[in-house]
Amino acid sequence: MTRYLLPILLAMTLTLPLRAGISEGGQPPQLPSPSVDLKPEDVVKIVIDALARNDQPFTNAGITTTFAFASPANKVNTGPLDRFISMVKGEPYGIMVDHVDSEFSEVVYAGNNAYQMVNLTAADGRAVVFAFRLSKQLDGDFKDMWMTDAVWPVANTEGSGQAF
Asked: Which distant-in-sequence residues (6+ apart) come within 8 Å of 108 by Cβ?
């Protein structure tokens, strides 16, 4: 009996980490992905909402979604995904992960580029405004899709009220 039980237990142990990202139906959960139907403000909202619940439906799903919306040029500088996860969890971006509140500015268009600021509040009350620069992809697999080229902190809003 032990001869048969050991391989089964071993197989179960090895597949547990793989099952963490599997839904009840046996399929991987569908995360949002770039689409020609999304406007820049949709992309930023999807990313911000995903980061607010980073570990749903699996560990780092929010950061994985954020990486999916990074432009090919952005991914060259920030990828692969493991490196991107470390970057987003570190300074100055760590406040974005599991934040508790967000406020969005209007989108500003400049040709094939779009800019939007987001005021984020962490659970500990810290608040930072981040600027998003997106571009409409002109060719390749993501042609005509808005994707994130860069994100950077522009203001620490602690004690200063509305930032935009």
From this structure: 114, 115, 116
